[in-house]
Specification:
The chain is mostly beta strands. The chain contains one helix and ten strands. The strands form three sheets. Strands 1-10-4-7 form a four-stranded antiparallel β-sheet, with no helix packed on it. The protein has a four-stranded antiparallel β-sheet with strand order 3-8-5-6, with no helix packed on it. Strands 2-9 form a two-stranded antiparallel sheet. The longest helix is centred in the N-terminal third of the chain and has 14 residues. It is globular, with a radius of gyration of 17 Å.
């Protein structure tokens, strides 16, 4: 009896994480606040082409998404970049299109780190005009997905 219950609990934990995510943050009530950060410290040189993904709910109220990405270089220099993504077209459809009951996942086309020396840390925050951005379920990092 206990083994079956434990298996169901473990399955629930596994299904809460995104496939191939090496780091992610899930937001309570699907709302990303300005104080919620995704912070990742690469562990190996082999972790090339890390890509940022964002998963949305149907409650997302904007056509675009702005995020601020900080990359701390090995020499301590902090490089910050503002990224924008169009996630909903003018007709109100998700970009890229998703099927019914599919998770709405957007993967930014640019890499968080283009090789070279491994950064000390990469940090991502939402950078929209509202301090609480509802309709965002989770944000995370995957390796090599969706990159040219």
């Amino acid at each position: 009896m206990h083994r079956g219950f434990l298996g169901i609990v473990l399955l629930g934990f596994v299904s809460c994480t995104s496939p191939n995510a090496i780091e992610e943050v899930q937001f309570p009530n699907a709302c990303w606040t300005l104080t919620d950060t995704l912070s990742w410290k690469p562990q190996a040189e082999s972790e090339l082409n890390p890509a940022l993904f964002v998963e949305f709910t149907d409650d997302y109220a904007y056509r675009n998404l702005f995020v601020k990405v900080w990359v701390e270089k090995p020499d301590g220099v902090l490089q910050d970049t503002l990224w924008q993504a169009m996630v909903v077209d003018s007709m109100g459809y998700w970009i890229p299109p998703v099927g019914r009951n599919e998770r709405v996942r957007y993967i930014f086309p640019q890499s968080l780190w283009h090789g070279g020396e491994k950064p000390n840390r990469i940090t991502v925050v939402q950078y929209m005009r509202d301090s609480v951005l509802c309709g965002v379920e989770r944000v995370g990092i995957v390796l090599g997905e969706g990159l040219p």
